[in-house]
Prior knowledge:
This protein is an alpha/beta fold. Helix 1 (17-31) packs parallel to helix 4 (129-155). Strands 2-1-3-4-5 form a five-stranded parallel beta sheet, with helices on both faces. It folds into two domains: 6-173, Flavodoxin domain (Rossmann fold, 3-Layer(aba) Sandwich), CATH 3.40.50.360; 177-240, Alpha-Beta Plaits (2-Layer Sandwich), CATH 3.30.70.20. It has eight helices and ten strands. The chain is 35% helix and 20% strand.
Amino acid sequence: MLEKKQIVLFYFSGTGNTTRIANEMLNAFSVYQYKAVLRNMIHLDSVELPDACHVGLIFPVAIQSTFPIVWQFAESLPSGQGRKIFMADTMEQFSGGIVGPMKKLLTKKGYQCIGAREFKMSTSMQLSRKKQFEGEIKDKRALIDVDRYVRDLIDGRAKWRRIPILSDLMRRISHSPKVWQNMSQKITLDASKCIGCGQCSHFCPMQAIEMVGRIPERNHERCIACMRCLNFCPVNAYKLYGKQALQKKVVDVNAL
């Protein structure tokens, strides 16, 4: 049985899936009489934890692992001192390079890893109506499954497995800055549509987009291809692989 301590849920969300899971998890813990709070990873200059608490990490899968910003946050966590920790990630199909390596990192920091769950959800790169429809079905299932995962954590049934060789290899691939720079270059701007509002620059979690006059310019060395600019541009001026994407706006951009 999970002790009745405060639960601190740290999350990062690119386009909204993880925000939805984090809020569902917050509500589920509250239903079971646990005090839980949400903390956005990108809004924290430093990480402090109450002496008596459990910790949750919630984030998206990217490049079969997760974004550099999430790894940096996990590495910045203070010593676990035996605190219980769990994770949840959101993905379209497959990860491979996150569950095992994250457990390895957190165990070394002194945390007790009690559960990991991966939720299949809609992709942030929707290029067809079929993908859009499939994603809506996945999202509904995932949000229902959150309560089951929370109950498993509370009852001690949750698992956090590790497959060393495969997962460590996948993590190594996503660790290369060139991988992210290559993904960043797949996102292009249709300048004829851009209205120079600056929203993409304002909401970029990595401050990788700078307004030069009325035109946003991307710094590929900082960009992590989270697809926030692509999905929340008010005039849909961004393209992916040279194609017009179907924007996914499952939450308000201010909630990210």
